[in-house]
Amino acid sequence: MQQDIDLNMTSLEREIFEIILDSDKPLTAADIILLCPNRKWFDRSLHPVLNHLVKKNLITISGYVKIARSKARLYEATMTRAQFIQACHRKHFESIQDGSLDNIFSALSGYKEKRDQLLVDEVELWLEKQKKLNEK
Predict the structure, then answer these.
(1) Beta carbons within 8 Å of 17's beta carbon, 6+ residues apart
(2) Would you say the C-alpha torsion 29, 32, 34, 36 has a positive or negative sign?
(3) Fewer CB atoms < 10 Å away: N or C end of the chain?
């Protein structure tokens, strides 16, 4: 995954990004418009949004395709959906009072003084899985 990815998006940027993210092939701007039949935005607003997503390193221009007498850019996501979700979770957890594990687990357990045993058991199970993965 690329460094310096900016996950802050407007609702329109998010809508366009999701379309590109879910595509199994690079898309042109015309492809994106066709994939949004119920859009509430104008076609002319797509290029500035695509440029913002490129600047934020969320999508990349992966090539060009000839359409009639001109070239169209092909856009694709710089990450998979799983990587995007992971990056969003990481950003969220880092924003919780300095990102310390104690603060994160406190937030998950509702800031209780005594941790919920179910949460403790889940964390222990997760840690065991991580240990086994690291041993391989």
Answers:
(1) 9, 53, 58, 59, 77
(2) negative
(3) C
